[in-house]
Fold each of these.
Amino acid sequence: MPELSRSQVVVYAAIAVALLLVGARAIRGEDGTDRSFAAGGGSQGGGQSFSISGQGGDLVVDVTGAVQRPGVYRMPAGSRVNDAVIRAGGAAPQAELEAVNLAARLADGQQVVVPERVPGGGSVAGAESEDGPISLGTATAEQLEGIDGIGPVTAGDIVKFRDEHGGLSSVEQLDQVPGIGPATMEALRERLQP
């Protein structure tokens, strides 16, 4: 075997160190270290951040309404609405948290709407009006009863189904609630938003 010159040994050592660094970086990247990205927008004018990790099963939710930093956030599977509100900087001073089920499990693609307290009692969720769509994630049984074909029992069943399933990401999921037929589904599509 031929002898190596001093310069050849240095080159081979440099290559070995470079390979070790690349390998260490690859291993560290596979361990699921988070990378943060800035997301523009928000009512405060500041940047928001969310993390993307290599783990499967994460949820992406839209937190809007009376929170400090509304936006889209990636949450671990099994998170609750309260976790999403905290991730969005917490409730704003005018928030009506009593109108939100903070213990409900989050569903992928869910919109969490934290309504604002209005003078004289009651609450308003963003731009909703009395004739506008009702948020499926925050609708009360009383609000659901105002929809054609929904009585007190069915409204209670919808709220119970939503809470048991950790929220709903689409109106079509209500087809699984007993007592809701095709005509009721049409009324729900017109009056509810995810």
Amino acid sequence: MLIAVDCIIFGFDGNDLKLLLITRGFEPGFGKWSLMGGFVTANESANDGAKRILENLTGLTKIYMEQLYCFADVGRDPGGRVVSIAYFALIKIDDYSPELMKVHNAKWVSIKKIPPMIFDHKKMIEMSKERLRQKVATYPIGFELLPEKFTLAQLQNLYEAIYETTFDKRNFLRKILSIGILEKLNEKEKQLSKRGSFYYKFDHKKYQKLEQEGMKFI
């Protein structure tokens, strides 16, 4: 029996929530869409294996990742007995290099247009989408998908993309600003309008302090 890690890697392009998928280069499932993944070695834990695989696939370190579920149905992989431990990860799209995309034959695909997937990978994706929605409601992990500085419109676009719905702008901004974890910068984004929109940053230290005081991100 082999133990594999499959990685559901989310990214955000400013409008769409996306997944990093590959076309499989070997059987079973040659040429079909697949999640990125690999096998855990005999001398490492599942978490260590997931970290190693994610770093190898993305070239990035300090990636936000979380164990999702163990997929162990006997017939899930027609190539043999393989147990897969799925992880979901959040990265900034611009941090993933085009060169690595070519090496791994990878592509960013909108979660609204997921193609047919091999094995039980579609089930992994659906489960990770639901987990992501649960997590961003109570923890500020969504900022892992945004650039270091962002506009409030980009922030709202992110949450609307995750939940696949629209929010009332006034209510959303009032709630997010009332938490007090955003730092307003003296700089504007002026490509989309002449007036421009102020950039903000997520204040990690302030959030940690508020969290220690019992504040919850909701």
